[in-house]
Amino acid sequence: MEKEEKCSSCLPFAPRLKKKVLFVLVLLVIVLWFIYYDSCYLSRLNTSSKLNRVKPFYAPIYNIPLFHIPLLSDKDMTIFYLEISSNVWCLKQGTDLTKSKIEGKCVCICNWFGLDCGIPAAVWKSSFLLEGKNTGVEIRRRKKPRRVIVFFAVDDHYDLLNINIQSAFFCVDLFLTIEEKNHNPSVLNLVKEGYLAEYQSKIMPIQLNKSFVVEKEDKWSVFMLSELWKIGWKRLADFRPDDIFLFSHVSSIISKDILLFLKLYDGFPEPFMFELRPLLFKFWRQMKSNSTNSNLVPFKPVGCTFQYMASMCDYEITNFLSNSCLNDLQHKSFFEKNFWSLKNWTIGNMYIPSGWQCNLCCKSECIKNKIDKYRKNGSTSLPLWYILGNTSVIEHFEKSRFFNKDLSLEIIPHSDLFFAPEIVLNDKQYLHLIN
């Protein structure tokens, strides 16, 4: 007992020592955890700031109630341009890089123009630029790219929806699609099942809870796009004044060269329209005569900036689609004083189109479904009956000569510089559209 008492009396600090040791250990763990967290955070930032180091994860956005449009303030412009000599930058898409490096200046490839080879032919030869002869016009390269947002009215042209998204994915920052109630197959359901999985970070499909029956396709497209705007823009956040909105039918394919120009340059007027090559069934069957006014053409794409939609049209999409916003001279004067000049601008012409309007460009079953829909709705713009027999749907339509008497077809050779989108020419799944 004496030894125990003596030992106990010689270690009066033992309980406090244990507490101190425990406290030091806990503090050490906390410090180590912060060091680990900080290193992970810095590593993530450093990795994300370096291009092509880590493959980004593209998460689907169809189920996000409010989508914040990604800002492009940190976008590296070397994705689009190459410095071939001191302070001489050339657009990669429009430049012969080998010759440019030899000559020390931008040498443009065919159908590209401008000091940095960034102006495609449809823009260069439009009434706005007049091949560079229009004085007082200055096209300026932006310091950072602007965002391009596309609104699509979708019916049964799924091949063309694929082509639109895959071709324009590099240039477009968001695709919004709208379809009617009970549309089958539904774009929304297809996306949920993995349709275009690698592109879903930019696809927001919206399904309308009602249907709109109308004889003319252009009126249907206007209605659907109006509904898409009313629903869509309220689901988006972080708009910028120079954001570009494009309104289109899925059968319209705007050239990715034109989209790239709109994304990277300033100085062009608005609102803008697109003169597309009017096609029927295939990319080599061009409609002539009054084809652009034909009932077969569902809708001509149009575009403007967010600033124009807000200031000139008061967010009223019907005013924009009818192009009545420019009639308000007081609004126009105020806008031009504070922002930039306004003028209707058509990009492209019948010889140098800004894209393709591929009407009824889908497989036979799709064409039959479209005709059935027209027949059900009482349309007179297409035949109310068809007999297949041993011929294809397309062959029957041609032989039955259902077209307007003023409408004829012209064969476009494969050698044409604007024959079809690059993805159509290079992907075997679209052979039925060019064979």
Kindly summarize this structure in a few lines.
The chain is of the alpha/beta class. Helix content is 33%, strand content 17%. The strands form seven sheets. It has a seven-stranded mixed β-sheet, with helices on both faces. Strands 12-19-15 form a three-stranded mixed β-sheet.
Please characterize this protein's 3D structure.
This protein is of the alpha/beta class and 435 residues long. The protein has helices spanning 2-10, 14-49, 97-103, 121-124, 158-168, 187-192, 217-232, 256-264, 306-311, 317-321, 329-338, 364-376, 393-400, 422-426; strands at residues 67-68, 81-85, 88-91, 112-113, 119-120, 140-141, 148-153, 174-179, 203-207, 236-237, 244-249, 252-254, 265-266, 272-274, 277-280, 285-287, 302-305, 345-347, 355-359, 409-411. It has a seven-stranded mixed β-sheet with strand order 9-8-7-11-17-14-18, with helices on both faces. Strands 12-19-15 form a three-stranded mixed β-sheet. A two-stranded parallel sheet has the order 1-10. The chain starts with a helix and ends in a 9-residue tail after the last helix. Mean pLDDT is 82; it is low at 1-13, 37-57 and 379-391.
Which labels suit this protein?
33% helix; 20 strands; alpha/beta; globular; three-stranded mixed beta sheet; 17% strand
